[in-house]
Amino acid sequence: MVKKRFYRILPLVLILLFLAGCGKSKSPSKSPSGYTPKLTSLQVSTPSVEKVTGVVVAPKGTQQFTAKGFDQKGKEIKGITFNWSVDTTEAGTISEGLFTADDNEGEYEVICEAKGIVRRVSVHVGLRQLTSIQVNTPSDVGVAGVMVAPTKTQQFMAKGLDQKGNEMENIDFTWSVDLAGMGTIDETGLFTAGETEGKCMVVCKAGDKEKQVSVQISTGSFCIALAGEQLVADSQTAWANFVQSPRLAKILNNQLMPSAGIIAFVFEETIDQVMRKELFYVEPGRYTEEGLWEIIWGGGASDTPYEGTWTYITEDWAYEDGTFERVVFGTWTLMVTREVVGENDHFTFDLRYKKADDETDTYEGMLIQPSLNLSEPEPGKAYSGHSEYQINFAIANGPSGALQLVGDSTQMMIIEEEYYDEEYDETYLEYDYIMVETTGNASGNFTYNGGAYAFDGTVRFLFDQNKEDSFVGTFTTPEAVIDGEVRLTYVANESLAGKPLFEGYACDLVPNKLTVNGSLADRASDLLLAGTFKLELKNAATFNFSDQYTASNRPGVELNFSGTLCNEVNNQLAGTLSFEETEFKCFEVNVDYDLTSDGVQRKISLNATSANESEIKIGIISDWGPAQLNMNLGFTPGFLYDNGFGDLDVGTLDTLSGNVLVKGVEVGEICLHKTFKVPMVKYHDGTSETF
User: Fold this and answer.
1) Helices of type H across 131-256
2) What span, in angstroms and rounded, lies between the C-alpha atoms of 104 and 124?
């Protein structure tokens, strides 16, 4: 059986492995991702600003604040009680986030607290005033200068900001150009360059505030710099299209992956809680976890399973980190009826999970499996037959829907635990069953965050290193249809050799290769992704998944993609991408593709390699010019580092150097913006741009 830890190693496998959890879990499930959420940060918002740091409130005026809490993974935690206060009563009062200002003008703070975590928002009580103007272009925020070709246009936009840097509405801006003949600008901020080379200033005014932006009008002598700029623009376009397309990121990160996690979570939680086989060897009735095991340890269990109805109550708990204090997360209440029909066990269940905040998750349905009998334990014996899993679920303030799998399965008995009782000088064995093979049709539909999800296809889980597991079918999210096939292969892992039991699962096989072949079509735009994706762990046979990632214990990740991506404005990328983990915390990335942007096609190649654990070298070449971009990036504490939660995170970019070449001639230098710490190019003609 596939180990639960693989969900974190191969998150895309979730679609395939949503049935991996079978048998009773020995540790409580706290969340679909398998970790215990802990409040680590707060975010305060207003109706107009998602992450507010300061506001202006008129005397005797009001301002509504709301708050969200996030765990160590940056995921929102629901059901938190927030406590609101102000730093001094002179500021005013606040109740349930609604701040009511007094008439004492000045600088104050609104304080939001939850579970010892505090977030402060500065509040200026007084009249809101225009303090500064910010000038933007469609591609950049807060520009200081731009380059425009002769007779071409550049759109400028402006924002008026108050004392706290928040945008003000209904501000009237006026536009002008400081030098006659260099260009014109209309009331919308659309600048049209003249025919003459040179530099001028675009001036934006509102009231007594003014903002100037430098405009370089480039003719023949600047064409080489323009080629360098085109490379930078192409690189950004390719990056945005291929990696950071808003639509693609939303579909994959906000829809597909969370929904696949929901499927895995629901199946695992349900099967773990319902299939408590020891329960069926005591007479039907009502039991707590402690009461059940007292009967079993006292020899009161039957040799054969009963038919009937049971109620079983158990707490979901864990020890507080670093202590032996029990923390209860909630209570499971199971009502289950076992009925033998032919050669199968039918389990009709009603499962409820009441959380510490009194919210309740519900699961109900039927599980059908080949009949099992613990009275004649035969470790290694396989039981095959028809199986069905029908689950209706409703998570409090979360997803709800129905999932099912209909097919055939094979289960095997294992020795789950072996322990010696010194008092009675006897060795006791605890048995359980694991699923070793499943084939059939999987389907389901559910709602999540107000959107409708569905999947339908065939699954094959053989858990055999000589055979492929697969899911073939369609997965529908609110905004996309994903159609194709997912295939998974295994390899024997030496760290599991000779260990028939591993976290409740008996198998020495681990996933080593994932292949996805198909397409993703956006239902709301022209976004289309089609091709073949492969993910392979070269060192899967020797990598110890339970140990830390080290120089001597690394998975050897290799990723390849070949296909086409059309973004929402029908720009197109067609080509290949490869990623390979070459050494500990080191990698190499190669991308070759044809970029079609605004009807123009250019060939671009990218290479990124690790110079060491902290430095990355990147080279990008375009056939337009031809031009070349070279960068050396330095990260703190490293490009990849342990974030303290057992996962690797990307460090902070703190150094950047490089250059832009056109026909082998340097036309600009690359560095970090001193204020905003974002990459920028300083061209030798005096202009610059960020990316």
Assistant:
1) 223-242, 246-249
2) 10
**What is the rounded CA–CA span in Å between residue 138 and residue 290?**
64
What is the three-state SS of 65-126? CEEEEECCCCCEECCCCCEEEECCCCCEEEECCEEEECCCCEEEEEEEEECCEEEEEEEEEC
> Residue 1: how many CB atoms within 10 A of its CB?
23
Q: Which pair of tokens denotes residue 241?
A: 């299209």
40: amino acid identity, one letter: T
In order of 198, 536, 660, 669, the CA distances from 686 in angstroms are 12, 47, 14, 11
Reported as a single tens digit per residue, the pLDDT across 77-100 is 888 999 999 999 999 999 999 999
DSSP 576-642: EEEEEEEETTEEEEEEEEEEEETTEEEEEEEEEEESSSSEEEEEEEETTTTEEEEEEEEEEEEEEEE
Interacting residues of 509 by C-beta distance below 8 A, sequence separation 6+: 2, 463, 464, 465, 490, 491, 492, 493, 496
Question: How far, CA to CA in Å, does 336 sit from each of 19, 392, 433, 434, 450?
Answer: 20, 15, 19, 20, 31
Question: Would strands 145-148 and 209-217 be described as parallel, antiparallel, or unpaired?
Answer: parallel
Which tens digit of pLDDT belongs to each residue from 654-672?
Answer: 899 988 887 677 878 888 8
- Residue 417 is predicted with a pLDDT of 57
Please, which contacts does 502-506 make with residues 24 or more away whose CB atoms are closer than 8 Å? 502/3, 503/3, 503/4, 503/5, 503/26, 504/23, 504/24, 504/25, 504/26, 504/416, 504/432, 504/434, 505/1, 505/2, 505/3, 505/23, 505/434, 506/1, 506/412, 506/414, 506/434
Cα–Cα distances in angstroms (integers) from residue 235 to residues 238, 331, 490, 522, in the given order: 5, 53, 37, 24
Residue 38 contacts by C-beta under 8 Å, 6 or more apart in sequence? 71, 72
pLDDT for the residue numbered 253: 67
Nearest-angstrom CA–CA distance, 649 and 323? 27
Query: Taking the CA of residue 650 as centre, how many other CA atoms within 13 Å lie in the half-sphere pointing to its CB?
Result: 6
Question: What does residue 7 show for φ and ψ, rounded to 5 degrees?
Answer: -55, -35
Tell me which residue of 534, 528, 442 sits closest to 481, measured CA to CA.
528
**What's the CA gap between 10 and 14, in Å, rounded?**
8
Q: What is the pTM of this model?
A: 0.54
Strands 326-341 and 167-168: unpaired
Q: Which residue has the tokens 């009603």?
A: 350
Element (H, E) at 272: helix 257-274
**Which residue, 178, 190, 198, 203, is CA-closest to 154?**
190
Torsion sign (Cα): 282, 287, 290, 294? negative
CB 412 within 8 A of CB 506: yes
Q: How far apart are CA 613 and CA 448, in angstroms?
A: 40
